């Protein structure tokens, strides 16, 4: 037989396309031609395949080999096609049964000694293969745990190309390509956080703001001097968020899989917490790169928390690039030949000092900054980005009295209140296609049946007339008011909920 076909997966971001690896072996001068828009790493695959086949004891020999990766119009990247190329060649020359390998997706790099090696992006690739109707994949031993997270997918592995070829040849004698051993721990239980909200002394207002942010999925700014506990608060936000559903955890891990993060103990259901350094580049924060388009920090925090400490020290262009992902929940990176979309449904938490020296200039604080320095520092966190931050709260220094207080509520206790508030939101918004107050479009909240009476919104209406909030800010205050009502068990926001939301919306901006 001169035609051999098997499967591979081409990834574009977290979206994958099932690819048919078609191999034709015919007469002519020895050659190994590869078509279908391969990148530089994939164009080097023929040399790796020839060496691996020789090491496996089943050399390809001097043949004219032509391989097409179909559909040929989709760019193909990486070394994950190596194993599929080798198996397609073997199927074409009848070393392995062609009917057995045709429906199987092969995802592994080949070493020159024939070993199957780990590749990045196995989880999104297997998810894409499953959605396309594929039921069986072969991966490297290091990737079995990751591929096994996809329910309903049969996963096989082998240490080397020679071992896999022997297993396929045994099928002709009634053998079976055995599935890889299942992992005992799938990590589907409730995670045990290493930190707790009870560790934070004092900061009652900031703790309330944190709970409000968790309840409605709102973005948060913590503004205060160094040592006041801003980082501690941000790190504990994930401990009061509900654990992820299995689907959410798979979506989050699929993004991180593209960066080589391989699970060792199963699926982690705790929301991710990502905290890039303030020297992070634009590409590292929102995604991109000079070669392959990789996900940035905002996508790595999908379904979790993106924490920007010392937010005013980030580059202005870097901060402003977050505006579109915060609104749409995704990052779109356009190139000349491709368009990559990454999910970015993350909660943003900003932490900033009140001025360059960090001390501020209020009562009892000794600021050494000039007024022009303070104004320039404040301007870094103003404008369109800050307009998308629902909660802005001052975090003062902790006093001795705060340290001597009884321990506050634990993360578990606060998380239960957050869970109840989110359940109320789910019942309200799920028929309309949303889950959280923070996702509801503003026009919906300003129209019946969700429009609030004028008595409840009087303070907010006045702030809009005076130019203290924008229309976007008006809508975000309404969302925050609904979250406050849900936390207090009310069916609709009262004037006090709107007043609280308006206060949180405007009180924490960096002082000018």
Provide a descriptive summary of the structure in words:
This protein is an alpha/beta fold. It folds into two domains: 171 residues, Ribosomal Protein S5, domain 2; 310 residues, P-loop containing nucleotide triphosphate hydrolases (Rossmann fold, 3-Layer(aba) Sandwich). The protein contains 22 helices and 16 strands. The strands form five sheets. It has a five-stranded parallel beta sheet with strand order 11-12-15-10-16. It has a four-stranded mixed beta sheet with strand order 1-2-4-3. Helix 2 crosses helix 3. The longest helix has 19 residues. The radius of gyration is 28 Å and the shape is elongated. The C terminus is likely disordered.
Properties at a glance:
512 residues, alpha/beta, Ribosomal Protein S5, domain 2, Rossmann fold, 2 domains, 36% helix, disordered C terminus
Low-confidence parts, pLDDT < 50 over ≥5 residues? 183-187, 508-512
Radius of gyration computed on alpha carbons: 28 Å
| Count of discrete structural domains | 2
User: What fraction of residues sit in β-strands?
Assistant: 15-25%
Helix residue percentage: 25-40%
Estimated structural class: alpha/beta
CATH T-level topology of the largest domain: Rossmann fold
Measured distance between first and last alpha carbons: 77 Å
Annotation, overall tally of beta strands: 16
Q: What integer is the average pLDDT?
A: 89
Strand adjacency order, main sheet:
11-12-15-10-16
CATH class of the largest domain: Alpha Beta
The main β sheet shows up as: 5 strands, parallel
**Global outline:** elongated
CATH superfamily of the largest domain: P-loop containing nucleotide triphosphate hydrolases
Q: Quickly give the CATH architecture of the largest domain.
A: 3-Layer(aba) Sandwich
Discrete helix count: 22
């Amino acid at each position: 037989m001169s035609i051999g076909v098997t499967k591979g997966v081409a990834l574009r971001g977290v979206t994958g396309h099932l690819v048919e690896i078609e191999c034709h072996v015919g007469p002519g001068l020895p050659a190994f031609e590869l078509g279908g828009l391969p990148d530089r790493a994939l164009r080097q695959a023929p040399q790796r395949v020839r060496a691996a086949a020789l090491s496996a004891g089943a050399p390809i020999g001097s043949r004219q080999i032509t391989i097409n990766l179909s559909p040929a119009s989709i760019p193909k990247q990486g070394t994950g096609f190596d194993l599929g190329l080798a198996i397609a060649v073997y199927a074409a020359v009848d070393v392995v049964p062609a009917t057995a390998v045709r429906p199987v997706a092969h995802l592994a790099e080949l070493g020159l000694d024939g070993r199957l090696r780990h590749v990045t992006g196995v989880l999104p690739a297997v998810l894409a293969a499953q959605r396309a109707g594929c039921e069986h994949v072969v991966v490297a031993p290091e990737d079995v745990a990751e591929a096994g997270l996809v329910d309903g997918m049969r996963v096989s592995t082998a240490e080397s190309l020679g071992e896999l070829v022997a297993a396929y040849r045994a099928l002709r004698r009634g053998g079976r390509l055995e599935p890889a051993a299942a992992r005992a721990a799938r990590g589907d239980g409730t995670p045990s956080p290493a930190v707790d909200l009870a560790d934070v002394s004092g900061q009652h207002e900031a703790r309330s703001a944190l709970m409000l942010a968790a309840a409605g999925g709102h973005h948060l700014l913590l503004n205060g001097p160094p040592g006041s506990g801003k980082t501690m608060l941000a790190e504990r936000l994930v401990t009061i968020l509900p654990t992820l559903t299995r689907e959410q955890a798979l979506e989050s891990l699929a993004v991180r899989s593209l960066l080589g993060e391989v699970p060792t103990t199963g699926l982690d259901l705790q929301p991710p917490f990502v905290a890039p350094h303030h020297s992070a580049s634009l590409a590292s924060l929102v995604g991109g790169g000079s070669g392959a388009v990789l996900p940035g920090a905002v996508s790595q925090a999908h379904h979790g928390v993106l924490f920007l400490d010392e937010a005013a020290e980030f580059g202005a262009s870097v901060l402003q690039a977050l505006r579109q992902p915060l609104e749409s929940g995704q990052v779109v990176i356009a190139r000349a030949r491709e368009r990559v979309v990454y999910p970015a449904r993350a909660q943003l938490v900003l932490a900033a000092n009140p001025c360059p020296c960090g001390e501020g200039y209020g009562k009892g604080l000794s600021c050494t900054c000039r007024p022009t320095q303070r104004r320039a520092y404040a301007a870094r966190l103003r404008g369109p980005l800050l307009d998308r931050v629902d909660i802005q709260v001052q975090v003062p220094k902790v006093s001795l009295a705060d340290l001597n207080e009884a321990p506050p509520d634990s993360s578990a206790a606060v998380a239960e209140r957050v869970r109840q508030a989110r359940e109320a939101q789910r019942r309200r918004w799920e028929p309309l296609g949303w889950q959280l107050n923070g996702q509801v479009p503003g026009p919906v909240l300003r129209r019946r049946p969700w429009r609030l009476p004028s008595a409840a919104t009087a303070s907010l209406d006045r702030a809009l007339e005076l130019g203290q909030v924008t229309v976007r800010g008006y809508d975000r205050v309404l969302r925050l008011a609904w979250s406050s009502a849900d936390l207090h068990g009310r069916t609709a926001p009262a004037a006090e909920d709107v007043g609280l939301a308006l206060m949180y919306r405007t009180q924490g901006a960096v002082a000018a």
